[in-house]
Amino acid sequence: MTAAASGEREMRIARYYDNRSVRVETAERPGIGDGEVLVRVMACGICGSDALEWFRVPKAPRILGHEISGVVARSRSDRYREGDRVVVRNQVPCGRCYACEHGHHAVCEDQVEIGPGGMAEYVRVPTEVVAAGMWPLAAALSFAQGALAEPLACVLHSQRLAGIAAHHGVLVLGCGAFGLMHLQVARAAGVSRIVAVDGIVHRRQVAAEWGAATLSPGEDVAAAVRAANGGRLADLVIVATGAADALATASSAVARHGTVLLFGAPDPDVALPISLNQLFWRRELTVVSSYGAGDVDFAESLALIEDGLVDPDRIISHVVPLSEVQKGFDLVTNPQESIKVVLDVAR
């Protein structure tokens, strides 16, 4: 094989070893079979979960990336043509396991996945994902904006599980990318009374622009919630941070028969500073956790972006070339200046 031919079969990838070692390397470009699609990745978000070392390092080295938009480079499916702009899920439910049979597709026990992850120039999209995990990306949206469809779908899925309603008073703990998306999705659902808490000033500023009463973690959160919610504590508290003390804050600020939505994930060895008695006794609380999203959530997430009900440009703080992927991870792990970091995989 000539050097030129070998180069045509290779692609750049970002291989994750740990948060301080994410290297640009080369790998063989994936082939595709009948019914499959090869997508040239144009943008891939760096999710906060990509930087959870306790979760990622035991499985390293690997090519991460599940917030993907791109262009169909080659198609052996009649659903998509070369040149189509698309958003791609990294996995879809099998439809056969116990969880799928009972409607819990987000926690399917045998997901069908793309290969490799989206921090690569090309991904192979299996037939199942082509059928249930790809959507056209409107020409009016940038690839970076399209990359927000997956995390936004996860927000929609979680709020659906939590039963959010327009009359609720909502408290959002954590104003990173997910917290800010929660805020905008709640507003799109008709919620008008929202309090948002974060320790970083510029994140609070964005939340305030979108109509939330804001404060830092050291302030009296329960009092702020009562002031914003007609004297009541929060009907729904969204924990969009992995900070260990967030659950204690949630407990102090949630109303009786309210709901606490656990969206952020603390390190598994961190002891939570709250007892179950303190959380539940005589309060009839509902505690909901969520993972991933479903087909309807993806379709709705794209519609929210297209209709301007969610503003991805205010959430995306940095677009970083794939060649500088380590800088992207540094911004995610030290977020004093960042909110959402997206990789420009074409650069």
Features:
single chain, 347 residues, alpha/beta, Quinone Oxidoreductase, Chain A, domain 1, Rossmann fold, seven-stranded mixed β-sheet, six-stranded parallel β-sheet, 17 strands, globular
Describe the structure.
This protein has 347 residues and is an alpha/beta fold. The protein has 2 domains: 3-148 and 310-344, Medium-chain alcohol dehydrogenases, catalytic domain (Quinone Oxidoreductase, Chain A, domain 1), CATH 3.90.180; 160-289, Rossmann fold. The protein has helices at residues 3-9, 53-56, 98-101, 127-132, 143-146, 149-162, 177-188, 201-209, 221-228, 246-253, 276-280, 295-306, 312-315, 325-333; strands spanning 10-18, 21-28, 37-45, 68-75, 85-88, 91-92, 112-113, 122-125, 134-136, 169-173, 193-197, 213-215, 234-239, 254-262, 286-289, 316-321, 340-344. Strand 1 (10-18) and strand 2 form a beta hairpin. The longest helix is centred in the middle third of the chain and has 14 residues, at 149-162. It starts with a helix and ends with a strand.
Could you state the CATH homologous superfamily of the largest domain?
Medium-chain alcohol dehydrogenases, catalytic domain
Strand percent estimate: 25-35%
What value does the Rg take, in angstroms?
A: 21 Å
Number of helices: 14
CATH topology-level fold name of the largest domain: Quinone Oxidoreductase, Chain A, domain 1
Question: How many structural units, i.e. domains?
Answer: 2
Distance between the first and last residues' Cα: 27 Å
| Helical residue percent band | 25-40%
* Total strand segments: 17
User: What would CATH call the architecture of the largest domain?
Assistant: Alpha-Beta Complex
Shape: globular
CATH class of the largest domain: Alpha Beta
Uncertain stretches of 5 or more adjacent residues: 1-6
Largest sheet: 7 strands, mixed
Overall pLDDT level: 93
Look at the helices and sheets and give the structural class: alpha/beta
